[in-house]
Amino acid sequence: MTDETDTSKAERVAEAKRIAALNTQAQAERRRERAAQKLRENLMRRKSQARARRAGGADETDGLPAAHLPQPDDTETSNSET
Fold first, then answer.
1. Residues 38, 44: contact at Cβ < 8 Å?
2. Which H or E element spans position 22?
3. Could you tell me the end-to-end alpha-carbon distance of the chain, in angstroms, rounded to an integer?
4. pTM of full prediction above 0.85
5. pLDDT digits (tens, 9 = 90+) for 21-70
6. Cα 11 from Cα 16, distance rounded (Å)
7. CB environment 42-58: b (16+ within 10 A), e (fewer)
8. I need a labelling partner for 15 at 20 to 30 A (CA). Which of 29, 38, 40, 80 fits?
9. How far is CA 26 from CA 16, 20, 31, 35, 79, in A?
10. How far apart, in whole angstroms, are the C-alpha atoms of residue 39 and residue 31?
């Protein structure tokens, strides 16, 4: 009688482990799907930005120090300084 009880208990434990493994696999699959979706969204956004730049709709640069375009006077001054 204890052999039957031990066997059924072992079967229940094994079944619980299989279910836990399936749940873990399902969670991992959902995580991969979410990551893939985020990557697709990011790629679409980057492509859209690149198309906008090619079309001349680049980001606004007002007020940025790096947006300073060299003037003809600037190049003459920098050349004579070197």
1. no
2. helix 2-54
3. 98
4. no
5. 999 999 999 999 999 999 999 999 999 999 888 887 555 555 565 556 66
6. 9
7. eeeeeeeeeeeeeeeee
8. 29
9. 15, 10, 9, 14, 65
10. 12
Please, are residues 72 and 66 in contact by the beta-carbon 8 Å criterion?
no
Separation between Cα atoms, residue 43 and residue 81, nearest integer Å: 45
CA-based radius of gyration for the chain: 32
For residues 8 and 14, is the Cβ–Cβ distance under 8 A?
no
Query: At 68, phi and psi to the nearest 5?
Result: -65, 120
19: tokens are 């279910």
